[in-house]
Amino acid sequence: MFGIPLNMLIFQLFTGLVLGMIFVLLAIGLSLIFGLLTVVNFAHGAFYMWGAYVALLCMGYFGNFWVGLIVVPLVTGAVGMAIEYLLVRRLYGLNPDYPLLLTFGISLTMIEATRILFGTTGHPFDAPAMLQHSVNFFNLFSFPLYRIFVIFVTAVIIFSLWLLLEKTNVGLIIRGGTRDSEMVRVLGIDISKIWLMVFGIGTGLAGLAGILAAPMRGVYPEMGIAMLVECFVVTVIGGMGSLKGAVVSGLLLGQVVSLTSLFMPEMSNIVIFIAMAVVLLIKPSGLFGISGLLE
Amino acid sequence: MKNLFQWISDHSVLMIILVLALIPFILPYEALATQMIIWGLLTLGYNILYGYTGLLSFGHAAYFGLGAYATGIVLIRTNCSLLAGIGAGVLVSCIGATVIGFFCLRRRGIYFALLTMAFAQMLYFTASIWESLTGGEPGLRNIPRPPLEIPGLVSINIYKPLRFYFFVWACVVVSLLILNRILESPFGKVLQGIRENEKRAKALGYNTNRIKWLSFILSGAFSGLAGALHTLYIHFVGLEQLYWETSGKILLMTLLGGPGTFFGPFIGAGVFLYLEDMISGFTRYWMIVLGPIFILCVLFFPQGIWGKVRDLADKNRGIPLERG
Q: Of A135, A148, A229, B263, which shows the fewest CB atoms inside 10 Å?
């Protein structure tokens, strides 16, 4: 196809899948937080970046990637919960622009703190030794084992989140709260605890995305910014507040970016914005969006 | 005190013009004053959209950058006059705002903010890969500085610190007069009506979408003028002018000064740049100070410095605080 060998095309499809999985991890957190708390978490990219840096610290202390994989989501989740409890909480019920501005300020502070503590330049980050080789598929193409591992981990997380949301009582409360949080409160449920938890889950997932992406995309203070904007595009296309939308449009955009960088490399940073403009023209509420939510 | 405040509010344009005429003599060096007035103009343009119409844009770097690049490119490639160069900057910003505004205004609220940011990033990436036009990463260099001339009459070299300051000042005076006229017109009142309650404005028969679009374009035009002047000032255009941090800076200045107030933009830009100048004397990581200031602003006084002053004055006069 277009003079590009089949094995390269398949390789690129896989790369797109990995990128899409990272998009999905971040977009789910954004979407959950937005759906329930109506907060656009502008600091989401900064949590993603902190995930990678906490992983770097874990590698330094324990010399072990697997410890990092457990510690990172816990740390970024805890920081997120602290920020929700101490700062974001004060702004509920006000103009939804304010939490957005607040988290923007938090993001600036987090990025600058990282620059001070770790320097402005990037840090190399190696995939764990046991995942460093490549897997050969039918002598057609080979793919790094680490990336397959990322696909696997993300799929497990998405599945567990789906179980949590659809099959448990907590999930029922979260879904109910997304529709009408006042009604949930009337039923005698302390929704502020759920808010705290969901903010923690979202930021924890962002941190997890950070450690998973670190061996592929490098670790530097601004790593979250481009990613955040791309995830905003994912949520706008998928429809904010919709889990299904986050998954479908995350995977879709992963492919779009990855295929564009194969056919027209110079356009790869721009193509998602074109995709967004097209979707907005055809279906303004996004693919799976609830129209009218916070507009 | 009460009467003083009333007098200042009634003669707001005159007050700004006078104060701006004085600051290059008060501040330690003229460069800071020039920065303040250019960023003040940019924030003024932004304030039309966020402060008066209530539309939170996260991508105003786009129009600042478009104006800056257009002026730079036109001055390099053609042998045109100074005013034509500035005109090109404003025109290109207008066109950019018209197109981007059309797409962004298809959504409201949060989505609008995210869309403006996405489009600004798109322009940023476009500028970074279109090296033949924009100079890419190193930026646009060696931009000529034509004199200010009226054909057959005079030709003035404005590129001396104080002269350039007053050239910008003259542009700001014109902008302020235009803006004041617009905000006092029925159209300006409808803008504020949309900010307060869009549904009601719609119910009264206004085509709110078109009015918001006009506000977007107007805001882009003033931001483009600021970009054009910035290019003439540093005779260089850098990629960072289109970067999201620039959009954040504009927003921060607006919040600091007081969104939706006439004095706010210049107070915000002035305080911000003075703080930046002061803090970067101690540390190059001045964002670590500014980030928390931003957070505190949002939490404790989202009405900004001038908004706070106005509220205090209103309280003294017994006017309820809800006034816009």
A: A135
